[in-house]
Amino acid sequence: MNVIADLIEANLETLVRRFVEETRTRESSQGLKASEIITTLPEYLRVVALICRHGPTPERLETRARLEEAHINLRLRVGATQEDATDEYTLLGRLIPQLWDDLRPEHTPAASDLQCLFQQLEAAMDHVVVLFSGYSMEDRQREKRFLRQLDALAPRALKAHEDAQPRLKPLIDTVVRALEAAGAELFLVERGSTVMGAVADSGHDVPHAGRRRVDAAGPSFLGRVARSEEPLVQAQAHGLSDAEREGLGQQGWSTLLGLRLWPHGELMGVLCVGFSEARPVPPQTKRFLETLVEYLSGIIERALLMGKLHEAHARLATSETRYRLASQVATDSVWDWDLTTQEVTWSGGVQRLLGFAPEETGPTADWWVDRIHPEDRERVKHGIHAAIQGTQARWQDEYRFLNRQGEAVRVLDTGVITRDAQGRGLRMVGAMQDITARRKTEAGREQLLQEAQTARVQADTELGRLNTLLHQAPVALAIFRGPTHIVELANSRICQLWGRAPSQVLHRPIQEALPEVKGQGILELLDGVFTTGEPYVGNEVHVRLARAPGGRLEDVYFNFVYQPLLGAEGLIEGVLIVATEVTDGVRARQRTEALAATLHANEERLRLALEAVDMGSWDVNPLTGEASWDPRFRAMLGLPAEGELTLAEAMQFVHEEDRAKVEQAMAEANMPGGAGEYACEFRVRPPAGDGAKVRWLSGRGQVHFRPDGRPARFVGTALDVTERKREEEAARQRAEFEQYLVGIVSHDLRNPLNAIALGTTSLLRREELSERDTKAVLRIQASAERAVRMIRDLLDFTQARLGEGIPVQCQDLDLTTVVRQVMEEVQMNFPERVLQASTPGHGTRGCWDPDRMAQVLTNLLGNALKYSPEGTPVTVRVQSTDLEVLLAVHNAGDPIPPDLMHRLFQPMQRGVPGMDLATRSVGLGLYIVQHIVQAHGGTIDVTSSREAGTTFTVKLPRDGSRQAARG
C-alpha cells in the first residue's frame, strides 16, 4: 500500500482543478485555455503515482520524461519563462501534500514515500532547466569538476604588496582549460583608485614591478568590461585601436570575452579570456564564465582577507612580544582592574614587594583599599575614583600601604585608564613601586628622576607601552653617550647592580666604570646599537662583575634592553640601558608569564584557524560532564545559543540512531591506557518544528589523562560534512544503477542477436542467393557477431563489477596450442597483416581456462592490429619458467599517450579518437583481459615508447586456479 499513490489517483480531478485555479492567477497563464494549462498533467500524475507505488522502472521513467517534455515544450510555445515552468512543479509539490492535511498521523505517508514523490518533481524541474537553457547535467558536472579544481588551487592568503602571479596563475590556467580558450589575463583594482593592474597571465609571467595598468573608467575594452554587468564579447580583436587595447598583453587573440569581478557590489577587477580564432560565444559559455568568475572572486577576496589577517596577527605578535619583554625586565607589582566587573588581578611582583602571594590578594578593589594606610585611604580613594569618572587617561599617587607584616611601605602607584567611545572607564592597568628607601635616602634625586621619566614618556612615543611600563618600574637606568660610552645618567639601582659608588660611575667611560667586562661582549653590543640604531633585548645575559672593591668576580645574570636615543636631527646621541638582575624569583615569574603568553597565543591561533575552516569546538570534563561549546558548534548541533549545557544534555541533540555509536566512540577514547583519540561521524536531528533535513557532523577529538590514568579533559572539533555525505550516497546510487542497467541491457540483447545469427546462417545455406544478397547477409552476420562480442564483454564487465569476478574453468592446457589456434583465426580476419609467433618447443603447459585464454589473446591481438601501421608485423612471444609462463604481444607504431597509461585498464576507455567506426568497441577489452588474468592469479603490464613500440606482457602461474584462490 502506498498512501501517496492512493491519494493522487483518488483525487486526480481535484488536483487538476486546483492546479488550473492557482495557475490562472499568474501573469504567464493569462489568456490561456484550460486545456493549454492542463496539457499532459493527468497522465503525468498517474505515472508519478505508479512510480511511487511500484518503483521507478525504465519504462515508467521514460514515460514520465516524455510527458514532461511535451508539457515544457508547450510552455515554451506560449512564451513562459524557465521560472514559470519550474513554479508549476513546485505548485504540485504543495498541492499533493494538502491531500493528507486532515488525515490522522497513522494514515499519512511515510518519509520514504514522500521522498520518492519529491524526487520525481525535482527531476522534472531539472528537465525544465535543460530544455530552457540547454545547460545539461553533463554541463553541470563539468562545472562542478572545474570548481573543485579552483578550490584545490586556491591560495590561502595574499598579502597586499605580494607578487600574486605565482599564486593566481594556476587558477587562470584552470579557467582557460574550462573554456577551451587560448589564454586569459586577470586585472585587479589597485587600492584607493580606479586603476586596474595585471596580476596574472596564463601565457607568461607578469612582473610585480612595472606591470600593465588600465583605467577602469576609460574607453578601453577592459574599461568597458569593468562597467558592464554582463559578459562582454569583442569580435575581430585584431582591429582594435591602441586606446581600445590598453592594458592587454596578448596580440594574437581574435575574440575577447570579458567579465568583471564584482563581489558585494564593488569592483574588484576584470578577467579577459581570449580565443585564437574568430568565433561566436554561445550562452552556455557566458554562463559558465559567470560561474567561474563568481567563484574566482570569492577565492581572491578570501585570500586577500586572510593576508590582511596574517599581517595584523604579525603586528599583534610584535606588540605582545614588546609587552612581554617589558614585563620581564620590570620588577614592580603590576595590577589590572576591570572597571565593569570590579575584578582586580595582581602580578607575581606583589609577593616580592609586599609579601602577599597572588592567591592571598582579594578579587576586588576592596582588598587594596583596606590595605591603604588609614591616614591616606580617603585621599587615595577619592583621587583614583575622580580620575576614573573624569576624562584623564592617567592616574598617579604616592601613599603608604600595609604589607603582609602590617608595616607601612611607601609606594608610588601609577595607572593608565582605557575608555570607551562615550568616555566611560573600562579598564585600568598600573604598577605599584616600593620607594621607601629612595624617599629616605634620595628624596631630592628621586623627584628629579621622576620628572625625567615623565618627560621621556611624553617625548618618546616610539617606545609606546614598553617605555610606559619601564618608567613606572624601579629598574636600573643608565645612558651611555659618545663613542667611549660615558655614563652620563645612573640611578641608585644601576650602582647597586654594578657594586659601584656613584662617584665611580658618573661621567666616566664604561671601560673605567666596569673594566672587568672587557672581552665579555658587552662593549661590542653597545657599539652595535650605537652604530646601527637597532634596539637590542637580551634575556639572562651572563656577566662577571666584582661587586666589592678588590673583591672576586661573581657570575651575575641580567635582563637587558638597549634603546638608541635620537637627537633633534635624527642622529644617535646615546644608548639607554634598562637592566634588572635575574634572581630565582624573577626566573620563576618569567617562566610563568612566558607560559601564559604562549597559551594565550596558541588559543588565539586555534580560534582563528577554526573560524577560517568553519569548524566548531568543544571542551568537556569527562568526570563531571561539565562542558563548554563554542558558538559555531552550538549552531551545528542545534544547541541553545546561550546558557550552561552538560555533555548528557548535549547528547540529546544527536540523532537517536547514532547516539549509541557516539557514546561508544567516547567510551573507547576515555579508556585508561589508550591513545585517547576520538573520531566519529554522526547525524544531528533538526530542532522540533524545523523543516530542515538531517545534517551530518564529523567529530575529531583527544582525551587527556591524569597521572593516575583517569580522563581529565576531552577537547575536539566538528565539521559539517552533510554535503559530502549526500554526494557519496548519490554517487553510490548512480554506480549501482549504471551497473544494473548494463547487466539488464546485455542480457536482453542476447535473444534478438541469437535470432539474427541463426537467421543469417540459415540464409547463407540457400543456393538461390545472389552475390549481392550474400554480401548483405555476411555484413549482417559480421555486425551481429560484433554485437555478440560487445554483449559478452558487457556481461563479463557486469559480473566483474556486481559478482565475485569473472569465473574461470581451469583444466590442463598447452598455451602454445591456444596461441596457434587464435592466431590462425585472427589471420583469417586480417589476411593482409603479418602475424609472427615465437614459442618454445615444450614447457608451456599449465592449469588454465582455454576459452578465457583465447579471449585474452584475441583482445590483445585485436588491439595490436588496430593501433599499429598496416605494413608492420604483430608478434606473439611465449616464454616459460619453472613456476610461470609469460605471454607477450608486441606491435610497432605511435606510443600510448602518457595521460592514457594510468587508466588503460579502466572500463569504458578507448584509444586515440578518429578510429574506423567498424572497429569501435564499448571500451571493455583491456578491463576484461585484466580481470581474466587476475582470476588465474596472474598479472598484466604494458610498456610503450616510440623507439621500442608497445608490448603487453601477461604472467600466468602454472597452477592458475589455486593461485587465484589463495589471492
From TrEMBL:
Q: What name does this protein carry?
A: histidine kinase
- Name the domain of life: Bacteria
Q: Which UniProt keywords apply?
A: Kinase, Phosphoprotein, Transferase
Reply yes or no: does the keyword RNA-binding apply. Answer: no
Q: Which organism is it from?
A: Corallococcus praedator
InterPro entries, per database record: GAF (IPR003018), GAF-like_dom_sf (IPR029016), HATPase_C_sf (IPR036890), HATPase_dom (IPR003594), His_kinase_dom (IPR005467), HisK_dim/P_dom (IPR003661), HisK_dim/P_sf (IPR036097), PAC (IPR001610)
**Reaction catalyzed:** ATP + protein L-histidine = ADP + protein N-phospho-L-histidine
UniProt-listed Pfam families = GAF, HATPase_c, HisKA, PAS_3, PAS_4
Catalytic class of the enzyme: transferase
